[in-house]
Amino acid sequence: MDKIHSLTGMLDLYDDGDSNNLSVKIFEVEERIKKIFTNYKLSEIRTPALEDTNLFKRATGDTSDIVNKEIYSFNDRNEKSIALRPEGTASVIRAIIEKKLDQSPHKIWYMGPMWRYERPQKGRYRQFYQAGVEILGYEEGPPEFEMISLVCSIIDEFMLKNCCIKINHLGNKISKQAFCDALVKFLEPFKDDLDSKDCERLLKNPLRILDSKNEHTQSILEKAPSIKDFLEPESIELLERIKEQFSDICSIEIDYSLVRGLDYYSGFVFEAISVNLGAQDSFLGGGRYDNLCSKLGGKDLPSIGMAIGIERFASLIEEVTVKNKIISFVTVTSNLEPKTYKIAHQLRTINRDVVLDTHLDSASLKAKLRRANKNNADYVIIIGEEELSSNTAIIKPLKDELKDQQTVSIDELLSFYKAV
Ligand code: HAM
């Protein structure tokens, strides 16, 4: 019979025990990032994967690629257009408005799959995972520092090298408009040289032209006005102070041409990139979006947030090192012996930090020891017929060649396990 395959650009993630495997790294990254979120006193939110398509149309803007060509949307049985979320921010704000919590500040995190119908390539998937943070209800200032501090903590936790945080400021309402007008005026004479996508951006959202992938557009832009000349002194000062404070932890670069792919940003924006990623070089991005909540029907809620692309981030980390001790539990009795399983159960109860790997088949002792080695076990506990009848067990160290194996009573085994 024909096999059914997974959809293009969608990965199966499976921990096969190989610490070099991307899935294993992804699971490890998720666990450790969650700990950092707790460390910053962020609260978890989980929103549905499916939303009303209009939410993303209204939030991310109709010039964003996400809404124009990447959204996975379809009509449900009631002919209502629903979409698989392409990002988390719009859903978080929708939930906060619906819960009538849009008048108070919140510090929130989330993690989960997102979907974008993009052309798959290295580091670009159609289903991918994001870990996101949204800080709601605080004006520009401390939240910007908190956000970059968080990004630095995450980069530091995984000791990422060759990466850089790019920061920029899109200005306040007046300076942003003045810059957009100047940009349009500058680009007007080159209109015929722009491709259709950039022409549309020029019309609907000129700032996004700065993000153009077209080399000719980029060469025209070399002489274009810079947003730096339109920013308020305090916006430039914010960028400089952030760079000053965190550059000892991670390389930080002020990039006045940085714009983001979603339309809701206003003010401070940032992206973290790594030269090790190739074309899809950004593993994290975010910024301030003070107008989104009111645009979605809520109150004025100044906000800032970011999201990490977990697959891209995980691909940057070295082999994961397992901190917990691993012990293999091997029985070599001819019949299924319930007593040994009770011992394994007791061991797991007395020390939850140890990983106890029970071998559930009737393979030979040699085969089980080979497997224990492959699974990176520190010790093997062996119970055979003889041990079973004398109420003992063998503890065999696998990593310390100087130590011999020893036979111990079950009580001694429990004490050893508790202290290991
Ligand atoms: P974004 O820049 O569109 O921002 O996505 C954030 C990160 O998700 C990217 O830096 C990248 O690592 C990852 N990513 C995006 N698309 C793909 C893909 N097709 N395959 C693999 N990884 C991908 C947002 O989504 C905003 N919601 C971030 C934010 C939160 N801004 C404010 N709050």
Can you characterise this structure?
With 420 residues, this protein is of the alpha+beta class. It has helices at residues 22-39, 53-60, 65-70, 89-98, 142-157, 173-187, 196-204, 215-221, 233-246, 292-295, 310-316, 338-350, 365-374, 385-390, 410-419, and strands at residues 43-44, 50-52, 72-75, 81-84, 106-115, 127-136, 163-169, 251-254, 268-274, 282-288, 303-309, 326-332, 355-358, 379-384, 392-397, 406-409. Strands 1-5-6-11-10-9-7-8 form an 8-stranded mixed sheet. Strands 13-12-14-15-16 form a 5-stranded mixed sheet, sandwiched between helices. Strand 12 (326-332), helix 12 (338-350) and strand 13 (355-358) form a beta-alpha-beta unit. Helix 1 (22-39) packs antiparallel against helix 5 (142-157) and helix 1 packs across helix 11. The mean pLDDT is 93. Histidyl-adenosine monophosphate is lined by residues 87-89, 116, 118, 124-125, 128, 130, 132, 134, 261-262, 282-287, 289, 305-307, 309, 311-312.
Quick rundown:
This protein has 420 residues and is α+β, with helices and mostly antiparallel strands.
- Give the radius of gyration: 27 Å
Number of helices: 15
Number of strands: 16
Sheet having the most strands: 8 strands, mixed
Work out the strand percent. Answer: 15-25%
Give the % helix. 25-40%
Strand order of the largest sheet: 1-5-6-11-10-9-7-8
Shape: elongated
The molecules bound to the chains, other than polymers, are:
histidyl-adenosine monophosphate
Instruction: Report the average pLDDT across residues.
Output: 93
* Distance linking N and C termini: 50 Å
Derived from helix and strand composition plus strand pairing, the structural class reads alpha+beta
